[in-house]
Amino acid sequence: MKFFDENLTLSGDWIQLAQNILKQYPKVMVLGKTDTGKTSFIRAIGYYLIKRNKTIGIIDADIGQSTIGLPGTIGMQILEYQDLQRSFAPEEEIFFVGAISPVKCIEKFIEGIDRLFQICQHKQAEIILIDTTGLVIGQLGKYLKCMLINKVQPSCLVALQFGSELEPILKEFEDSSLIDIYRFKPCSEIKSKSWRERKNRRQGKFQEYFKNLKLSDFNLFEIPLIGSCYNEKNILSEDKVLLFNQKYFLDVLSVEIQDNKAVLIVENPQGSLKSDLFSEIKEHLKVERIVIIPPTWFDNILVSFKNKQGLSDGLGIVYNINFKQKKLRVYIRKDTKLNSIEQIELGQIKVKPCGIELPYLEPEAID
Predict the structure, then answer these.
(1) pLDDT for 154 beyond 60
(2) Global confidence as pTM
(3) For residue 143, what is the domain's CATH number?
(4) How far apart are CA 218 and CA 222, in angstroms?
(5) Are residues 173 and 221 in the same domain?
(6) CA-based Rg of the chain, rounded to a whole angstrom?
(7) Residue 5 lies in a domain
(8) Short-list 151, 344, 130, 124, CA closest to 230
(9) HEC profile for the chain?
(10) N- to C-terminal Cα distance for the chain?
(11) Same domain, 185 and 274
């Protein structure tokens, strides 16, 4: 799909801003709540710039309603004048966040935008346009956007706001001599979307991406598996897990230590792990909490095939994980290139191969 639409036009103050961006703003970030027209603004401004022979970088960080890439990812494209004549979209670079909201992964979200921003600069984009999420309200929204602005240091902030909802963020940069701020009312043509409409749009994106699938097996002895509830770097060795099982007469498949908690993958948690053992296990592992997960919990989790640049070479859906044999079976697109995989990364999204989202519930810790 082409990012630009030839029917997009600029009018009024947007034309003046586009002219200013053309002359003096190499880094532009657009802020606004959900359904304020951030993406439409970037598409219109981008089209204006590319028609004037500027090489631009577009970073789509709206991970819940991605235009470039799939939900759960930050996408980036470099666009030139010649791309207007093509019937296909230019190559995308994708950073996998693995969530549809940055709430639980703010640092990773910021890392992804910064990494793609650096790539834009390396590829000599003359102007970089950054679309952001609609999380702008409250302390968390302010914290996230201020972190992002401080990291990227845009030369221009474009605020699309209904009233004064962005002012707590904008006031932090009002006195900056390096950042100019432009305030606009949201696009009047933008219609508010319901939660259901947003979910359906994500489903459509997943459905389109995963329409031509095959099952592929991966050896976890050769390719590390990482994620919030399983990370090869923190897994106890097989010998230590064996000793652990012998000590407590258990059949635990994996033990991972994460700061002050232990994540135990257990085939049959109800039948094998009694509550009276928890205190002993916590003392033995020197942790304050225990998280118990059955292997089936990982089924349908969205995963990314991560290359050595830290970017995604494709996405897949977990079919199952055999922790005893250290084998992972994943639904992947038939055209997925697997020759440059450095890691397989687990996300925080569950989806069926047909594109339907499933609830993702973090396992509860036992104190």
Answers:
(1) yes
(2) 0.91
(3) 3.40.50.300
(4) 8
(5) no
(6) 23
(7) no
(8) 344
(9) CCCCCCCCCCCCHHHHHHHHHHHHCCEEEEEECCCCCHHHHHHHHHHHHHHCCCCEEEEECCCCCCCCCCCCEEEEEEECHHHHHCCCCCCEEEEECCCCCHHHCHHHHHHHHHHHHHHHHHCCCCEEEEECCCCCCHHHHHHHHHHHHHHHCCCEEEEECCCCCCHHHHHHHCCCCCCEEEEECCCCCCCCCCHHHHHHHHHHHHHHHCCCEEEEEEECCCCCEECCCCCHHHECCHHHHHHHHHHHCCCEEEEEEECCEEEEEECCHHHHCCHHHHHHHHHHHCCCEEEEECHHHHCCEEEEEECCCCCEEEEEEEEEEECCCCEEEEEEECCCCCCCCCEEEEEEEEECCCCCEECCCCCCEEC
(10) 49
(11) no
261 and 157 in a common domain = no
Is the residue at 156 inside a domain?
yes
282 and 175 in a single domain? The answer is no
Tokens of 124: 């000599």
What's residue 7's pLDDT? 61
Distance CA 153, CA 181 (A): 12
Q: Name the residue with tokens 């085939």.
A: 267
**Residues 226 and 295 both lie in one domain:** yes
Domain around 242: 210-367
Q: Give residue 120's pLDDT.
A: 94
- Residue 354 identity: C
pLDDT band at 1 (very low <50, low <70, confident <90, very high): very low
Contact 73, 94 (CB under 8 A): yes
Q: What is the pLDDT of residues 177-188, one digit of tens each?
A: 999 999 999 877
Which of 137, 161, 192 is a domain's end point? 192
CA distance 298 to 362: 11
Is the same domain home to 161 and 259?
no
Lookup result for tokens 């027209």: 37
Residue 202 located in a structural domain: no
Domain count, the chain: 2
Torsion 293-297-302-304 (CA) sign = positive
97 residue type, one letter = V
Residues 214 and 130 in one domain: no
Q: Is the pLDDT of residue 6 over 70?
A: no
Residue 20, domain member (yes or no): yes
